[in-house]
Amino acid sequence: MSFHAVLRNGVKSIFLRFEEALDTPFGGDDNPLRHLGAFGLYLLWIVVGSGLYLYAVLDTGIDAVYRSIGEISSEQWYLGGILRSLHRYASDGFMLVMLLHLIREWCYGRYHGFRRYSWLTGVPLLWLAYLAGIGGYWIVWDQLAQWSATATTELLDWLPIFSEPSARNFLAPDSINDRFFTMLVFLHLGVPLLLILGLWAHVHRISHVDYLPSRRAMLATLATLLVLSLLKPALSHPPANLARVPGAIGLDWFILFIHPLTDLSSPALIWTLLFGLTALLFALPFLPRPRPQPVAVVDAASCTGCDRCLADCPYAAISMAPHPRRPGLQLAVVDADLCAACGICAGACPSSTPFRRQEALTTGIDMPQQPVHALREQLEQALAQCSGRCKIVVFSCTRGADASALATADTAVIPLLCTGMLPPAFVEYALRGGADGVFVSTCRHGGCDFRLGDRWTSERLLGQREPHLRKTVPASRLQLYPAAARDSGALADTLADFRTRLGTVSDDRLPSYQRKAP
């Protein structure tokens, strides 16, 4: 195993521990580590909203900018001062969430194949975010802004792009004029617009994007930022004076960390690290990767053009085209470059019901490595071999908790590529085939490797999404349980509780009559 793989697995293990630990106080729907992209977009909108107000009341004159910002913070603290602090802390939060999102996607290996486009379009956003953040500090034009501007221009002067050193513009008090701040504000508005455009490109190939976290998470985040703004408001340092060296200043390490690093090393080393890291991030999707799984295959004779697979695909890998043999109907088309090989489309297909009389069950869309026909055969074989007082069929996700240890004489375990590929009719089919109960182990909420597998599984089995489990199936005979990779013990305990409940419920299981279409 390469050093890169060892390092990535080590970081992933640490990340998993924190993710699962935060599930306890927050739950999967509100866990910030499971929804970093949505939290980042939410914080960005706070930055944009607060920034628009600050821009509306800001005087960009060289002699007036510091005064106008000071008046916002002191004389209008109840609105302008709070919004300035919100702008500052939301910006810091955005930087932190953006870096955590990058690290999480890297340690999960989410930069190959169908995720390559999102990864490559995300790397330039790092530069845009820091350009906007550093430029924002300059607008205040206090001693921190003076120090940052001088340090940045000295860093830029190392690059052979200027005929004269740009740092000379900050050597004398008369070297900065009103046009400088007009240009600075224009750039501070323009770069975030490019950032928003880049974010659209970053996610536009992904369907069902969480543009915002849950309402509770948004309210809690906003409340935290407001409390922080009241307890420690963002204030200006003394005004900039190019005739004097700035004194002691408080540093924002989330945005301005590059300046101390430059002081400790050299511009040459910093640029080498920045360009080297950027090149490495761009190169990751092109490194050798594990052998990709076969993608979904469409059977034209069985596809009805219902477009449920299109609606449920997490990565917009499916489109609809005119059916070549049936005028007026449509046919699903799979983009192999975007397909995640999750099987969620097979679980959405109405022809994936095991009650069809075909000896070799063919569906409109299926996964070659685990076709629905083979899944039906595996279930029938497991039911035939299962014996005991209380027979249970466990459908588990291979990327969640390992359920193989649960297999016993009276418990059949059937692993799936993703529980999202399980057609709901298989639950009813198992009960009619003699099972006393069906246990479905999904990934934790928000923890699906394919983003939507746990969500679609729950909604289908609870009758909230098509294809849904029929209402005639007794709810007491079905158990849904979200489990992560480290939840094997909790999974076993939950299965034991389910078995106990099955022994106490009334005899409401489905009759074991001849299998035929209901």
Helix and strand layout, with pairings?
Layout: H1 3-26, H2 36-56, H3 65-74, H4 77-107, H5 116-140, H6 143-157, H7 178-203, H8 215-231, H9 258-264, H10 267-283, E1 297-298, H11 308-312, E2 318-322, E3 330-334, H12 344-348, E4 365-366, H13 372-385, E5 392-397, E6 411-416, H14 425-432, E7 437-442, H15 453-461, E8 478-482, H16 488-502
Parallel strand pairs: 5-6, 5-7, 7-8
Antiparallel strand pairs: 1-4, 2-3
Helix pairs in contact: 1-4, 2-4, 3-4, 4-5, 4-8, 5-6, 5-7
Question: Could you tell me how far the N terminus lies from the C terminus, measured between alpha carbons in angstroms?
Answer: 52 Å
Helix content: 40-55%
Compute the gyration radius: what is it? 29 Å
| Secondary structure: number of strands | 8
Largest sheet: 4 strands, parallel
Strand content: 5-15%
What's the overall geometry?
elongated
Fold and architecture overview:
Helix 1 (3-26) packs across helix 4 (77-107) and helix 5 crosses helix 6 (143-157). This protein has helices at 3-26, 36-56, 65-74, 77-107, 116-140, 143-157, 178-203, 215-231, 258-264, 267-283, 308-312, 344-348, 372-385, 425-432, 453-461, 488-502, and strands at residues 297-298, 318-322, 330-334, 365-366, 392-397, 411-416, 437-442, 478-482. It is built from 16 helices and 8 strands. The radius of gyration is 29 Å and the shape is elongated. It has a 4-stranded parallel β-sheet, with helices on both faces. The protein is 48% helix and 7% strand.
